[in-house]
Predict the 3D structure of the following.
Amino acid sequence: MEIIRAENLKHVYKTSTDEKVALDGLNFTIDEGEFVAIIGINGSGKSTLAKHFNALLLPSDGKIFVAGLDTADENNLWRIRENIGMVFQNPDNEIVAAVVEDDVAFGCENLGVPPDEIKRRIDFALDAVNMTEYKKFSPSKLSGGQKQRIAIAGVLAMRTKIIVFDEPTAMLDPVGRREILNTVQKLHAQGLTIIYITHFMEEAAVADRIFLMDGGKILRIGTPRRIFADVAAIKRLGLDVPIAVELADRLRRRGLKLPKNIFTDDEFVDTVKELKF
């Protein structure tokens, strides 16, 4: 079932002397329970699009609907934000309390959730991100990955149907990135709709579909396997491809006859094992 729809969505940033088209007539749908990754170079429009999902920005033209609600209608604002949560790049900018459980409760308190229900939601959310043992900790004592998991718990506690991740691992080390991606995959498996903006192609590769953006437009929409199949086209846009795809492409250019559909590490290893040198 469709949960998000954009119709000729356009956004223009205006100054006193200039204007820049950041989103240029986007049309797409996202289904409930889907995992969509959005990729593109800096300035391609990814983060601008992210801010339209929960009405932090409003369309300059066109429409975007979240759970059937028009984001441009101010009467829909709180209902939209009850359905969709945001997790941003820097976890330190998302922490608002001195104790983990208080931080997770913050969004619920703003929504007017009764105290007893907030307590139940805190326990549920911390368990979902494997952070229950840190309930009484100060966030300042946590790693970057753990802080980001607390930010995710705060969104989960609000019982949103959709979570938008705007480059949530950009400021984390490899261990922290792996923690967050594992958490995101677990939430997706539980039925949440995930919109995941990233510069890391290995992260995008686990999505159901990828939106490939450039210059404020969506150039392609497809499965990760289909999007990354055209290595040359991806690189012309200044992007990388998953390691297995990259290695297979390099070996083909050196004359080895490898199948075109190699996508995962396991597929690459299994294929190389069969080669006769």
